[in-house]
Fold these 2 entries.
Entry 1:
Amino acid sequence: MDSDDMHDANDVESLDDDFYSGETEDAPMDDYSDDYDDDNNNNNNNDADDDYFDDGADDSAQSRSTEINFAILKESDIRDRQEDDISSVATVLSIPPVAASILLRHYNWNVSNVNDAWFADEDRVRRKVGLLEKPVYENPDAKELTCGICFEAYRPSKIHNASCGHPYCFSCWGGYIGTSINDGPGCLMLRCPDPACGAAVDQDMINLLASAEDKQKYDRYLIRSYIEDNKKTKWCPAPGCEHAVNFDAGGENYDVSCLCSYSFCWNCTEEAHRPVDCGTVSKWILKNSAESENMNWILANSKPCPKCKRPIEKNQGCMHMTCTPPCKFEFCWLCLGAWSDHGERTGGFYACNRYEAAKQEGVYDETEKRREMAKNSLERYTHYYERWASNQSSRQKALADLHQMQTVHMEKLSDTQCQPESQLKFITEAWLQIVECRRVLKWTYAYGYYLAEHEHAKKQFFEYLQGEAESGLERLHQCAEKELQVFLSAEGPSKEFNDFRTKLAGLTSVTKNFFENLVRALENGLCDVDSNGAATSKATSSKNAAGSSKGKSGRGKGTKATVSSRLTDDNEWSCEQCTYANVGSATACAMCNQERQ
Amino acid sequence: MTSSSTSSRKNLSKIASNRLQKELVEWQINPPAGFNYKVSDNLQRWVIEVIGAPGTLYANETYKLQVDFPEHYPMEAPQVIFMNPAPMHPHIYSNGHICLDILYDSWSPAMTVSSVCISILSMLSSSPAKQRPEDNDRYVKNCRNGRSPKETRWWFHDDKV
Ligand SMILES: [Zn+2]
Ligand SMILES: [Zn+2]
Ligand SMILES: [Zn+2]
Ligand SMILES: [Zn+2]
Ligand SMILES: [Zn+2]
Ligand SMILES: [Zn+2]
Ligand SMILES: [Zn+2]
């Protein structure tokens, strides 16, 4: 057990190194970045910066990260596209559509590859895919022909052949084609039965000779091939969803959201995971499955109340727990600390996202020290995993609440508050935001786990941002979950409802902004924080890393993120309050909104 | 064109037995060189004698092929194995199973018993050494409870031999 854990401690080190060693594990970006040279990227960043400081602009995050570079395809769209591609190739090469379809299948539905190959060496391509220009077998001009499978003689009208001329009767063709179709998608590449021939069996022949059921299966395979063999398309991985996604080159954002509301990463088809990269996600998932036995207890939805020790069931999405009467102790699900120690109420800094390894120094002998390290490594993982998992289940809960809201509560609320449902959109918007934020927050714990232990400045800054995100979202979630409750059970319109609207809509927009900025800051690898103090080009080109948490200027005391001082160029200034390095043109801190001193 | 093992035990379909009758007649008129088949009353299983071609490692040696036809022959491939003792050959296992693509994935209903026999003889004739496949022991052990070679996922040896 101990030695396993030690391995684990070592793994963490090496994984961290991987994480920072570059983009090698990432997707083949080159395929996608043709349109984006460095200049473009810089321009984009600068644009984002300018937007950024427009006060309170909701949509300030318009940038490369939100551009739409994908399309969701329903079955009819898929068929349309497939037909378009086929007829385009048929027109350009002056061949029948069924021949164009065969060519496209051989070239993974890439229209320009088909055209290129064809014009480079038409004969070779024809031989390769089995499109013969003239028969290789001349049927004798007889009254009867012998089928090459059943060896029976038939009148010519009962015989059919592919472009090669090899004669088979209708019934043998039917059996041949049917066997192939029932064998799988290989039927799309079916050739003449003659072992030495190779002439393609095209879709016209399938339609003429196969049973209705087999034709349907063939059609299914054809559609599947169009999506699965094409490098630009994939099926939505959500269970039961039949839509496909077409992803276009350009941009660095792989997140795709389907009409079925599932979001996933185009590159690795895991659930959407910005701001962490695909490599980190797969490491994290692997780690979780390796540790799943140890971690089962975390997934249990019950913990003892830290005060009265009775088990408390977590049945709400936010982390603020209240024990049942008479105890009524309010505590934090994540750290089991008193809720009164949390958040702005005390001006305290939200810190239950932080992992403080027990730092007892000195008097260990070597074995005890190693045992302690091993224990810490599991403890450390447990810390991150628990928070990752809690946000995951909060997200599930929020999704269910959102659904409940849309299907049940909206109508009733519209009724009691005498407001049209269109006026209540702010509630669904809040819930959608919560769902998205829980997703982001969840992944920041995987991010934190792989953040190098020795990069202290980065780590502290990260934990500061994450803490702000956690507490901001907590406020939003609590407002949407608990404060709304009053109005749901109300008999008639309440005066306070408009105040509630202002508050919830405000929280939604502030939280949205903060999270969008958080995502970008983390995707940039927090490169504003440079512990060496070297003003690298990286640091200057990524000024967009920031979050604006409005209405929080009252927060002052408590632990502050101390980011080590860095060389600033003439224009940059460091925030008094949070030490964030701001661009020269900013009059207030992009991170905490503190006025420039 | 794979098939399930059970189909080989079912009786021949009408199409299959018509076709086999025709193959039988053709065989009797025009037997492939190097093969002997004495007609029995079991159309569904043919036992064929193979005589090693002169000038090859198997010259003057005689082996026996057992050919079983499935219900939906020729849409499904026949099962072809060497009877004991099987020739020593880099693509023939000691239990008689033959690693030859046309007997499995590359089967086509336009092939016949006769064309399969000719392919097998040519495979024997081109052998450079009398030896078993490298994985013989493992494979034969895995087949012990009577598995048909048609259930094997064949990974075909290079076709130089
Ligand atoms: Zn042909
Ligand atoms: Zn026929
Ligand atoms: Zn979907
Ligand atoms: Zn991914
Ligand atoms: Zn309690
Ligand atoms: Zn806490
Ligand atoms: Zn600041």
Entry 2:
Amino acid sequence: MISLAGRDIMHAWGKFVFTGVGLGLLIGVTLTMAGVYRGMVDDAKVLLDNSGADLWVVQKDTLGPYAESSSIYDDTWRGIRGMPGVVRAANVTYLTMQVHHGERDVRAMVTGVTVGEAGTPGWPPYLVAGRQMTRGHYEAVADMATGFKPGDRIQIRRNQYTVVGLTRRMVSSSGDPMVFIPLKDAQEAQFLKDNDAIHQQRRRTGENPAFNRPGVPGVLDAVIASQATNPSVNAVLVQIDPNHDPAQIAESIRRWKRLTVYTRSQMEDILVGKLIATSSRQIGMFLVILAIVSAAIVAFIIYTLTLGKIREIAVLKLIGTKNRTIAGLIMQQAIALGLIGFVVGKIAATIWAPIFPKYVLLEPQDAVSGFLAVVVICILSSVIAIRAALKVDPAEAIGG
Amino acid sequence: MNGKGIRLEGLKKRYGSGDTAVDALKNVDMHVAPGEVVGLIGPSGSGKSTLLKCLGAVIEPTAGRMILGDEVIYENGWRVKDLRALRRDRIGFIFQAPYLIPFLDVTDNVALLPMLAGRPNGVARARALELLQALDVGHRAKAMPSQLSGGEQQRVAIARGLVNRPPVILADEPTAPLDSERALAVIRILNDMARKLETAIIVVTHDEKIIPTFKRIYHIRDGVTYEEAGEGRGLD
Ligand SMILES: Nc1ncnc2c1ncn2[C@@H]1O[C@H](COP(=O)(O)OP(=O)(O)OP(=O)(O)O)[C@@H](O)[C@H]1O
Ligand SMILES: [Mg+2]
């Protein structure tokens, strides 16, 4: 026996390839949507990996520092550093903002890290160009995605920084590239007011009789000095001795420091489960709609192709073709359409994924489930056409 | 007359029921022997298509008997279980339009029937090719139907009707689209094949060009058949 479906496809290959390509682009979009989600999850994991931390110490009862704002004093790390099992502890600040470079500005997550030796938690773990920051002020290491080059002068708030090094794949959980600057500068950037505001604040403080006491001149100066500095950071990143149980250390920090502490897996749950949960539901909706649209297209095409063959189907039935053979003819064509579409979609997604502004991660396992979904959708969509074909009366071939 | 070929006795067909019932076939008696080609002629609405459909086992008669070879195939209901196999193996169809399968080449259009009956592809194609050569379209065996002339297509369709060597062939206006020379050629082929393959052929036609060629003609009027001797001219 010959393959009727195969022969029909070869005969009308133009039609098949054309619809297959259209369907393929749709499947490509679907695979890309899945890739966008995977990319977001991966970005989150890379963010956590690259921070070099085993524990995140944040303001009590917050989901900081990535999912909620968190503020703790910048001397907290000392106490944590002294706890058993803790190898390193370092302050860190995160602030997403526009970073200016000449005429251009780039949205970036400005990260303030403690200047010290490499390997300090929060530092970029590797560079692709230049060097790490060595001075306590006005140097920056930027992710390649910012487009900055070593030697560039960039502006964050009112201060100028020199880009001394470049890193890569360092992005925030929303995909913005990171720019690392010294912690002190970052703390200032978070709180720095413009000159008028500083003026205003000084005046108000000076007018407050509680601070400006006659005969006690030192009080006003001390108050103003304390107002002008920012003693807060967003979190303390903690590295622990691998022989210790992170959960146990986290528990003792919670108990003794009255702060909230997250382990790596808890942090991942927060990022994936809370921060990108809405986005993932959004993408899920897209996937559902795309699947329905794909199914509708396959169903429509296969149904139209089948209606165009009613006469032939009547003849095939009259000369004794089994219903199973005719159903197989239609279903195989639907699957063939799905196969063409899947191949086109996979190629398209692979080609265009790197062009996307955010990281698109095409996982082989998504391709496999996508493939299975395409086959199932094609089989289901051929049902309408098969029903129409099986209803054809062989007597129609004889005519009136 | 011998018992082979196809025989209809008192065949009736009623469409619908009650007030709207139509008695399309009231009393059909017919016998076509193996090797014989008979004409079936009647005005519009007389029941020709209905009769072909009953013979072709795509609609069920209401009463009467149909005997194919030695076997009663209809009497108070179908007597054969697998009507599909009956159509595939024992009845050949030739239509007014060739109705070839557009995505199969000429050989496979013909070879499809033996393939459906379970013959290996090679055997089916060899048999198809032999018939195509006998019908003078062997040189077009690899062509697609759309590349053939109307007459060539019709001969391929005839080859398809014959390829499983069915004991009976039903031809519905097989010469309508052809000029008189080609129409006569088709009738000659049918007579030839009927003799060679021992097949009973029933040709439904309006075609004045070929009516004189039949040796026997069945007239049908209001669902009743009358037999008549034909002229049997023009076959040599
Ligand atoms: N499916 C049907 N239901 C009801 N009546 C039908 C049906 N098919 C045919 N008839 C009626 O049966 C009668 C015979 O019809 P049939 O189609 O057999 O005629 P015919 O001889 O083939 O005519 P024509 O030469 O016009 O094709 C007609 O009166 C027709 O209206
Ligand atoms: Mg008719």
